[in-house]
Give the backbone structure.
Amino acid sequence: MNDHAVFQGLARALSTGSPPVAWPFAVWKNLFLDCPMAASAHVQQFVGRQMQEQIQLLNDLAKEQNPSAAVSREAAFLQQSALAWSGEMLEVAELVQQRLLSATQAEQPPFAMPVATPPFTRDA
């Protein structure tokens, strides 16, 4: 067998237990299916929470007697919402990075808890 580094790398990449990145379908599935679905589900949950908060605020503002207080509460909500969106975009970027990098990692075996041994007893 050839001892060249390129051939050794190919042999490792195509051996059993190789990371899924060696197979094009795994990369394609992760890039075009899993990652966009996870990101869109995450954003949809965030948008749903933001809409619920906005509706609750509008319900509270309908009972507000002072118009300037209502405007200031809405402005505070919009500022909080803008900050929440920036945080959400960071979370989505982190999620995408995690999903894309997971395609290059080898499959990890499930963690098995060690079996507890009974305490030592002495027969008298």
DSSP finds three helices and no strands in the chain. The CA atoms of residues 82 and 120 lie 61 Å apart. The mean pLDDT is 79. The two ends are 64 Å apart (CA to CA).
